[in-house]
Design a protein that fits this description.
Shape: globular
Strand order of the largest sheet: 1-2-3-4-5-6
CATH class: Alpha Beta
Radius of gyration: 18 Å
Helix content: 25-40%
Bound molecules: zinc ion, fe (iii) ion
Number of helices: 9
Largest sheet: 6 strands, mixed
Number of domains: 1
CATH architecture: 4-Layer Sandwich
Number of strands: 14
CATH topology: Metallo-beta-lactamase, Chain A
Amino acid sequence: MAKLEVMLVPQLSDNYSYVMRCEDTGDVGIVDCPDAEDMIAFLNKKGWTPKAIFLTHHHWDHIDGTKGLKEKYPGLKVYGYIHDQKRLPDATDFVDEGDTVSLGACEAKVLFTPGHTIGHIAYHFAGSDAVFCGDTMFAAGCGRVFEGTFAQMHESMQKLAALPPETKVYCGHEYTASNVRFALAVDPENLELKAFEVEVKQLRDEGQPTIPTTIGKELAVNPFLRVDAPSIQQAAAEMGKDASDPVAVFEATRTRKDNF
Ligand code: ZN
Ligand code: FE
């Protein structure tokens, strides 16, 4: 099966856009883009012309570069969530849960992952062991629940967690260091988390990204997935939540992070 080459393109202060290239056909695509000029400079250096941009959700720090990219690359396909047409004015192709999209010979399934926004999607390229999940899952964290319910966000996180453990997680922001600080506060005895803290600190000290993480790693370190871990349940119980209810534990953990 054809594979993608994936490159991180840091944008703004802590956003990640991604450039992907199908190794079979050479077709180039982008995931999210707040800054068109910066992205065009990256593509010019490579000598590449993108065919498509895959949008995860309507927030400005993920879509503001779309218009400029369309002007620069006429015919650029812009994928977005079908029920967010009004909020994705530059999108050209609308997709829903379960749809297949492709870049060259590489295919992705669209996953509906509401919670951060009610129109959030992720793109799972199974043949490349890669998921682009915007502001749903972060390394050791998850997006704020702005529009959806905690139950929706919990379900979206579980949907991503059910992907094969080797799946690389390409998320929308470099938030890992602060996420790890919070995770240690609610999950202090987690040895894999402690090891991850050391790894993350070293990467950040060297100015390196901590992304991609993997689903397998997130299952071990991400407090928003570990709703069945005693320490996470204990922290929820301290907030008066029912520790036996995964959604209540998720809500308590997310609320605590909002105030951390
Ligand atoms: Zn967002
Ligand atoms: Fe964002």
